[in-house]
Amino acid sequence: MVSITKDIDKEKVIAQFWPQISRAASGYESRPALSDELAQEMALSVWRSLEGFNDQCSLNTYIYRVIHNTAIDHIRRHSRISEDELDETTLCESPTPEKSALQAQRQHQLIIAVNKLPLSLRQVMLLKLEDLNNIEMSEVLGISEANVGVRLHRAKEQLSTLLAGMN
């Protein structure tokens, strides 16, 4: 197998995808310290895996696959926390105006609701929030595009129910 890593600057790839890595880490792990640890673990996994990237899919899809597989391994090692244990100050730092406060509250509620979803639904919702389309999500998760659609529909329904219960 011929590797194309000679053309890939690993540092640039990590820097380019760091916002996605960070968001994915906070989507899978609510505890700030473990979220930071998970983000670092994801970045290291991406760094190491770039040597095996052989252009069978887009780099974007490949990176998401690596970070989500790393997140699944992390979840297997650590238990998730309840909503009561979330540190609101780290999740929603906002300025004082009412509009910003309301937006921060909604984002906080969305994070809590997404964290309550079963893993299979949380995965598709996190990828959707990263603006991946169904085809890209199916490649990342290794499931059919139809299954992505079903999971996405179920995730949206459960999110609606969870968010309605928070109001």
From TrEMBL:
Q: Which family does it belong to?
A: Belongs to the sigma-70 factor family. ECF subfamily.
Residue ranges of domain RNA polymerase sigma-70 region in the record: 16-80
Pfam families reported in the protein's UniProt record: Sigma70_r2, Sigma70_r4_2
GO terms classed as biological process: DNA-templated transcription initiation
* Entry-linked InterPro entries: RNA_pol_sigma-70-like, RNA_pol_sigma-70_dom, RNA_pol_sigma70_r2, RNA_pol_sigma70_r4_t2, RNA_pol_sigma_r2, RNA_pol_sigma_r3/r4-like, WH-like_DNA-bd_sf
Highest taxon of the lineage: Bacteria
Task: Tell me a Gene Ontology molecular-function term this record carries.
Answer: DNA binding
Which positions fall inside the RNA polymerase sigma factor 70 region 4 type domain? 113-159
Q: Which PANTHER family match?
A: RNA POLYMERASE ECF-TYPE SIGMA FACTO (PTHR43133), RNA POLYMERASE ECF-TYPE SIGMA FACTOR (PTHR43133:SF45)
This one is known as RNA polymerase sigma factor
Q: Which organism is it from?
A: Pseudoalteromonas luteoviolacea CPMOR-1
Which UniProt keywords are listed? Sigma factor, Transcription, Transcription regulation
Entry-linked SUPFAM superfamilies:
Sigma2 domain of RNA polymerase sigma factors (SSF88946), Sigma3 and sigma4 domains of RNA polymerase sigma factors (SSF88659)
